[in-house]
User: What shape does this take?
Amino acid sequence: MDNSLRGRTVVVTGGTRGVGAGIAKAFVEAGAQVVVCARRPPEVPVEGVEFSPLDLRDPPAVRAFFAALPRLDVLVNNAGGAPYRKLADADAERHARVVELNLLAPLTASLAAYEHLRRARGAVVMIGSVSGSRPSPGSAAYGAAKAGLENLARSMAVEWAPEVRVNTLVVGMVRTELAHLHYGGEEGVDAVSRTVPLGRLATPADVGTAAVFLASDAAAYISGASLLVHGGGERPAFLDAATANKET
Assistant: This one.
């Protein structure tokens, strides 16, 4: 994929750390000009990446940001996330903020970027999650938003074809600098890694490489698709609970 996007301009929302920084780095390595936007600048800047401050939950600011760009070929809607919070432990307004960030903000950014992308015959890459296709206790609003994001991408792919391709990366568990908040220390990360068929969590670079592929000419006939980046998924719990068919 080296230099496959040379000369193209890419915006990665929330691309200042973790998965977003891995995505930004992958696009730089593919030869693209990369702009990341978030509320706060990165603690560790990625070489070759330009930072622009932006609150993605402020639609007028989002529209002004994209209107000021001279061109845009690829939009990666990566910004998102949610703290661990059970449904009954917060009011609906707080859960709505999670939906706003993970579903409405990507919609706002995509609409603001549309004219640029149409002229460039560009691509949108949504960063989805396996939480959108399975129960997500402790992050139910996040899972619901990611389910909606994947469906939004499919509809967008139909409405915006043939000028703009739209796809989703359905991402599993990733080892980032914040992994301990989700899985615990090294012992917890190792234990969780053993539940993944490939035996490890994803790295931000794994997600970045997949995003570059979907944005590149190598994926020119792929639109409205969901690419699973989850190491094989999760081993069904019943296999370990059952007493039949055990290997000896």
Notes: Strands lie at 9-13, 33-38, 49-53, 74-77, 123-129, 165-171, 226-229. Residues 129 and 171 are 5 Å apart (CA to CA). The chain has a mean pLDDT of 94. The chain has eight helices and seven strands.
